[in-house]
Amino acid sequence: MSTSMPKYHPAFQVGQFQDDDIDLLSSDDVLYRLPAFILPPQCFTPSPSSIPIDASSDALTPLLLMLSGLPSGLMSQRFMEDPLAVYALASRCGWDAEAVVAARKTLSLDLYAEEHAAILESMPAGAVVRLFQYHRARRDVFREIIGEGFDEKCSGCGAKADGGEWRTLRARMITEIENGNEEGVCSLEMEEWGESEACWGAKCKECGAAVYDRIATLRRIREAVAGLPTFK
Fold first, then answer.
1. Strand runs labelled E in the chain
2. Helix axes of 96-105 and 83-93: crossing angle, nearest 10 degrees
3. Phi/psi at 94 (5° precision)
4. Strands 51-52 and 30-34
5. Whole-number Å distance between alpha carbons of 106 and 50
6. How confident is the model at residue 232 (pLDDT cuts 50, 70, 90)?
7. 50 - beta bridge partners?
């Protein structure tokens, strides 16, 4: 917590709203005067001065702009830099739609990293469980639908094949899915991956045909991407 004197954010000053009788204080000492109805009464213990929030103003401002109906920077770079803090606040306050957006933005984060421990510990237990389940379910569902995707035989003559190119591509796709980049799977971006080029370019040593049925495999991949779970 900074030792500087807290100052109101320009968009959330005293008198900005009718019935503006709640002050939120970000972790970097920015105050937000808000209407009471924005925060459910069970979220925070009433304070005679202000309610401290474990989130920086960079994370808090776009979320409060959206909730208050002011021009929002929800999808701004600042929001994306701290989605876990936004998810924690949205979960604590029962802001379901905002929690869904923030949860999606956390996919690029390693939730097991030490740097996230404190904020995860501050969340309601149910919110933490749902977030971890969401991250894991995406990976597990993709793996289940995609299967091995290859029976270790040449798609042309049926000769035994190693399958290493496919396993490498499959691992790359799973990593992309875990990081929230399913848009990159089965796209032009994927065609430029070295793993894709190696897979589709593999030739059978017996007949010289393509080892992997590219059309059938891409169809399976698209089905797997379409079946990815959403955050609930």
1. 7-8, 22-25, 30-34, 51-52
2. 160
3. 75, 25
4. unpaired
5. 28
6. confident
7. none
* Identity of the residue numbered 226: A
Please write the tens of the pLDDT for every residue from 8-49.
888 887 765 555 577 888 888 898 887 766 666 556 555 556
Residue type, 81: E
Q: What is the spatial distance between Cα 122 and Cα 185, in angstroms, rounded to a whole number?
A: 35
Q: How far is 9 from 27, CA to CA, in rounded Å?
A: 13
Closest by alpha carbon to 229, among 149, 139, 158? Answer: 139
Q: Which of 71, 52, 85 is nearest to 10 (CA)?
A: 71
HSE-CB at 46 with a 13 A cutoff on CA atoms is 4
Q: State if pTM tops 0.70.
A: no
* CA–centroid distance for 7 within its chain: 31
Look at strands 7-8 and 30-34 and give their pairing.
Answer: parallel
